[in-house]
Amino acid sequence: MEREREMSDNINVTFKCLSCGTDPISLTTDDDVATDDSLVRCKSCGQEFGRYGDVKAKAKEIAAEKLRGMVRDTFKNIKRKFKG
Q1: Per-residue pLDDT, 8
Q2: 7 in Cβ contact with 70 (< 8 Å)
Q3: Does residue 28 have a pLDDT over 90?
Q4: Comparing C-alpha atoms, which of 79, 51, 49, 63 is closest to residue 12?
Q5: Helix H or strand E segment including 29
Q6: Element (DSSP H or E) covering residue 74
Q7: What secondary structure, in 3-state letters, does 31-61 show?
Q8: Do the beta carbons of residue 36 and residue 30 sit within 8 Å?
Q9: Closest CA to 37 of 47, 46, 45, 29
Q10: For 27, which DSSP code?
Q11: Residue pLDDT, tens place only, 53-64
C-alpha cells in the first residue's frame, strides 16, 4: 500500500509575539539555564510571556491537539479506502 503522505516525527509549535508581531517568536530568559520558574521574553522586543513552565505546558497542549487531529485524519482516510 502506498502512503499518501509521509508523517513527520516532529510536531512544530510556534508562538507569535502580540506586542511586536514577530512570528515565529524566539524566547529568551534572564537565567543562564531555563527552569520552569524562569521568566521568558520575546527576543525581539522584550515582551514578557510568563514562566517557562507555563509556556512549555501550553506548547504541549497545542502539540497534543495537533497529534489528535493527525491521528483522526489518518484513520478517516483509512476508513474511506476500505469502504470502497
Answers
A1: 58
A2: yes
A3: no
A4: 63
A5: strand 27-29
A6: helix 52-83
A7: CCCCCCCCEEEECCCCCEEEEHHHHHHHHHH
A8: no
A9: 29
A10: E
A11: 999 999 999 999
